[in-house]
Amino acid sequence: MSEKSMLRRLIAYDRWANAQTRDSLAAVAGKAPRAVTLLAHIHLGWSAWMDRIGQIEREIAWFPELGLDQCEEIGRAAQKRWDDFIAGLPDDWQGIEYTAKLLDGGVSRFTLNEIVTQLVTHGSYHRGQISTLVRGVGGEPVNTMFMRYVVTGKG
Asked: What CA–CA distances, in Å, run from 131 to 3, 39, 59, 136?
């Protein structure tokens, strides 16, 4: 599998996992608003890294209190930006480093593989928290592990 294919696969996995999480939240969103906030936070991470890659400085409310529909809108907008970005990558994209201003004010350089790895693991971390919150209000959390994605034929 090429690096670009693997990159696309990881992004597709994260989207699948977020969709599964959203579906599990639908039945309990009113009882678990913090869980919806965490899902929005995952989507905002993808959006923020697009901003960083494009050298756009923008204030972000990292943990917004939103409804599930608003959360999904943020996710769709971030997905569109990433789809457009990936489609436009040059052939030599693996050698490109992106300078990013970090939350602590520092500046560092990252490859696209590093950025996507950060985003996917960040999502997994928060989906675990969401599952705990969903279970805590009587809902049924979903298995969003990567291997589940693979064995269901999605990946």
From this structure: 31, 11, 28, 8
